[in-house]
Design a protein that fits this description.
- The complex is a heterodimer of chains A (315) and B (213).
- Chain A has one domain (66-314).
- Chain A is built from eleven helices and no strands.
- Chain A has helices at 10-34, 43-64, 67-88, 96-114, 118-140, 146-170, 183-208, 223-244, 249-277, 292-296, 299-314.
- Chain A is globular, with a radius of gyration of 20 Å.
- Chain B is built from eight helices and seven strands, in the order αββαβααβαβαβαβα.
- Chain B has helices at 2-22, 48-56, 71-74, 78-88, 106-113, 138-145, 159-162, 189-204, and strands at 24-27, 38-42, 65-70, 91-93, 117-120, 151-157, 175-179.
- Chain B has a seven-stranded mixed beta sheet with strand order 1-7-6-2-5-3-4, with helices on both faces.
- The termini of chain B are far apart.
- Classes of the chains: A mainly alpha (315), B alpha/beta (213).
């Protein structure tokens, strides 16, 4: 039997293997922590680590085989995130069909990426979707709460579709570029660093956290967690950048800090949205984590930041 | 033939729509019945209600699962009647008596006798999306006839947003489905309906759901 040809280069596979090794160690640590403990106080941590296995497996399968499959995967992720968001926020009955048009932006946005139509990728949501949705809403003739509805729908499109789709555009960046680089490597770099930063901020916060950071938005965040996480993420960035990206040492430091602090802001921004609506988790799709938004919240900020940093300095 | 069509409809089409287009957030799934006879008594906002509830039960039970639906609506022409009876597999119920001595609940009683799991909507019709209408006492009359059959209150939110009455296009929304504890009949229809009502109200309060208007 012939194995399907992989699309990704060896460096990506090595990093994926390293992630599996780290997960193995994490699972071992959690198993030791839970031994002889019948109170079940680490049950959520265990569920979280277990979910990480599933998330890593899905991610690896999605990006490894074909670029088209990878782009389709991120389109699906955008759709699920947008659906979670639009189900969470109060919407008006008059906008039911408007929401249908909002959903239609997802396949279109990812189609531009597949076509490598960079300008359309950039302006489709901020210009065309923005104007079209407003037009579609006003033609419906319902003015009660119009601005709130228009604002929230567009906010959803900007974050869940436009913001997230930057991850997929990384996949086509390598084509015809001056620097030799593989799109999947760039994608893996920013996703890995962002998720690692979430975990590191949590670990630093739990072990050394003393001073509250942004208590009114997210009561568990601490200054120690933020700084410890951002700095250790920067170290990983410096270590991994030569393997996966064209970034120089200085730029790797800048990107590490950007992901560290940007990820924090993405996280607390979604926390603020949830607090505004009055829910704790955005859903229940990922055991131990919550919904999709709870997992990708940091990426909503780090993906566009990383992408445009690269675009400006390297492409 | 009918059984195969039904399996394809519920096993493939309904499950795909429910999984991808909607997405269910189910709480207390373990309270669902493992065998018939049983009744899932839910609030009614959409044609999708019965579809979503049936998708919660394992396919192995599918031959035994039937939604109770209005005969005047679903049997109004040949094609719809064929689809409703053969594919959806409804238990048709007449909502109005033709004669004084008609036993409207007879088809429901017969289905329970066969050991079916019935999807039942005590509100009677879909009404305004995401608003509870009055629960009619038909549920209590069934419970009185078959006090041994567990009635499981199920509260759903979001299906009326995805496909409200009078619309044909499904718009994706995550759907909450909260399953309650089985109710047993205790000899008093009014008290029974009051218990059903308060069980549904308690389930509705498990999550903060925004109004939809």
């Amino acid at each position: 039997m012939k194995l399907p040809q992989l699309w990704v280069p060896d460096n990506v596979l090595w990093v994926l293997a390293a992630i599996v090794a780290v997960l193995l160690v994490a699972s071992l640590i959690v198993a030791v922590m839970r031994r002889g403990d019948s109170t079940g106080k680490h049950a959520e941590l265990a569920a979280r680590v277990k979910s990480w296995w599933a998330l890593v497996a899905i991610f690896a399968l999605a990006i490894s085989f074909r670029r088209g499959i990878a782009i389709a995967f991120f389109a699906l992720l955008s759709f699920l995130a947008l659906k979670e968001y639009l189900s969470l926020i109060p919407t008006r009955r008059a906008d039911r069909r408007v929401l249908f048009w909002a959903y239609l932006c997802v396949p279109l946005q990812y189609w531009w990426i597949w076509q490598q139509w960079y300008n359309m990728f950039l302006i489709f949501i901020p210009v065309w979707a923005f104007l079209f949705i407003a037009m579609r809403m006003v033609l419906r003739g319902e003015t009660h709460e119009f601005l709130r509805a228009a604002g929230t729908i567009h906010w959803g499109l900007m974050t869940m579709v436009f913001g997230l789709s930057h991850l997929a555009y990384l996949l086509v960046l390598g084509d015809g570029a001056k620097v030799a680089v593989h799109g999947a490597a760039l994608l893996l770099f920013v996703v890995l660093l962002t998720e690692l930063n979430d975990v590191l901020q949590y670990v630093w916060g739990r072990t050394l956290g003393r001073h509250k950071a942004l208590e009114s938005v997210s009561p568990k965040k601490t200054v120690e967690g933020l700084l410890g996480g951002a700095l250790s993420t920067t170290l990983v960035s410096v270590a991994l950048a030569p393997l996966l990206t064209p970034l120089s040492r200085t730029d790797a430091i800048a990107v590490g800090l950007m992901i560290g602090f940007g990820g924090f802001i993405g996280d607390v921004t979604i926390s603020a949205v949830k607090r505004d609506i009055g829910v704790k988790d955005s859903g229940s799709l990922i055991p131990g984590h919550g919904g999709i938004l709870d997992r990708i919240d940091s990426l909503l900020f780090t993906a566009p930041l990383f992408f445009h940093f690269l675009m400006y300095f390297y492409f | 033939m009918g059984a195969l069509l039904r399996l394809l409809f519920y096993g493939v089409l309904v499950r795909t729509v429910v999984l991808i287009v909607l997405g269910l957030n189910v709480r207390h799934r373990q309270r669902l019945p493992a065998k018939g006879p049983a009744i899932l008594a839910a609030n009614h906002n959409s044609h999708l209600d019965a579809m979503a509830l049936i998708s919660l039960l394992p396919l192995r039970l599918l031959p035994r699962v039937r939604p109770v639906a209005a005969a005047d609506y679903f049997l109004r022409n040949r094609w719809l009647a064929w689809f409703a009876l053969k594919v959806v597999g409804i238990v048709p119920l007449n909502r109005q008596r033709q004669h004084e001595q008609d036993d409207l609940l007879a088809p429901v009683a017969a289905a329970l006798e066969r050991g079916d799991i019935l999807i039942f909507f005590p509100e009677g019709s879909r009404g305004e999306p995401e608003q509870l209408a009055e629960f009619k006492s038909g549920l209590a009359r069934i419970a009185e006839r078959r006090p041994d059959v567990p009635v499981i209150p199920v509260y759903t939110y979001g299906l009326g947003k995805a496909l409200p009455k009078g619309e044909w296009m499904i718009v994706p929304f995550f759907v909450d489905i909260f399953v309650g504890e089985a109710l047993r009949f205790d000899g008093d229809r009014t008290a029974y309906m009051a218990r059903y009502r308060s069980a549904m109200a308690a389930l509705a309060l498990e999550e903060k759901h925004s109004d939809w208007s």
